[in-house]
């Protein structure tokens, strides 16, 4: 991609973002195709993160920070705090725990002592297909609550997301995971959720939180707390299959 070629030719302190009106060859995790119709907020952002920093030592956290930034971009606007936008570990943006509304994909390259991070994120703002979009949620909220919140634009939300992300990264660099986790938990869909480990008939466990490196922590019945990672490339809330790392 163009941004991938450009990112090494820019001065360190200069950021780079590409915004697509429409995307024809979007990629998701594990080789999935990312459908990106008109009305979807789509961008790729380049960041440089020093290896010897809080975030440089915990690169998997970046996808969580970006997911949180998208949710906060909407829910930090006065009047929009109760729009049911949430984060789903590890890298999805959801309407409540019902429907995916966006996602994040992170690629990192370590060059000497700097991580060059390419963050692709997309979320439905003004397109009701293929699932649901943020402006649908706002219209629904207006109907139910008698409010008159305005529809939001993709450009505005991309700009807000990047601004919030910069603040979250600063917070993380200064205070580590504990600087951002309370906010993350406020918006995530997994509180107290039950899962099965290692397969349909595996032992029951309860989701506790996220560990220092961004992996999911679960408490197994009759056992201790352990960190797990998604089975394959997705954490399917319907099948709930996760495997200890």
From TrEMBL:
Assigned protein family: Belongs to the biotin--protein ligase family.
UniProt xrefs under PANTHER family:
BIOTIN PROTEIN LIGASE, BIOTIN--PROTEIN LIGASE
Q: Where is the BPL/LPL catalytic domain?
A: 1-173
Q: Which NCBIfam families match?
A: birA_ligase
Q: What GO cellular-component annotations does this UniProt entry give?
A: cytoplasm
The record's CDD domains line, in alphabetical order, gives:
BPL
Under the heading InterPro entries, the entry gives: aa-tRNA-synth_II/BPL/LPL (IPR045864), Biotin_CoA_COase_ligase (IPR004408), BPL_C (IPR003142), BPL_LPL_catalytic (IPR004143)
Q: Which organism is it from?
A: Melospiza melodia (Song sparrow)
The protein in question is named BPL1 ligase
Which molecular function terms from Gene Ontology are attached?
A: biotin--[biotin carboxyl-carrier protein] ligase activity
Q: Which UniProt keywords apply?
A: Ligase
Q: Where is the signal peptide?
A: none
**Membrane-spanning regions, if any?**
none
